[in-house]
Fold this sequence. Notes:
By secondary structure, the protein is an alpha+beta fold. The chain is 34% helix and 21% strand. The protein has a single domain (6-94), classed as Beta Polymerase, domain 2. It has a four-stranded mixed sheet with strand order 3-2-1-4, with helices on both faces.
Amino acid sequence: MDVLEKEGLDFIRRIAEKYGAARVFLFGSSLHSPAEAHDVDLAVEGVSKNDLDAFWDELMWADELDRKPVDIVRIEDGHWLNPIIFDEGVLLYEAQPSRVAQ
Length: 102
């Protein structure tokens, strides 16, 4: 499944590792039509509340993500989207890789 260009996936993975994320999922419109999606919806686990703004700042409007805005949901906050994220989302990054999207 081509959810993002390789450059975008690699960029997200670098930023996730930098901020100590355990997992990062892609969900929302980018799953169905990445070229037509107006934003990039990510769910993160393991990024502290203190680091979340800096994590977001590095991703927001990045050239590697076609300068699209980024929405971030922190899984630990028990967001109402969590069931949808776990059911439909695509795992982009995991600190201990298992089934990560290529």
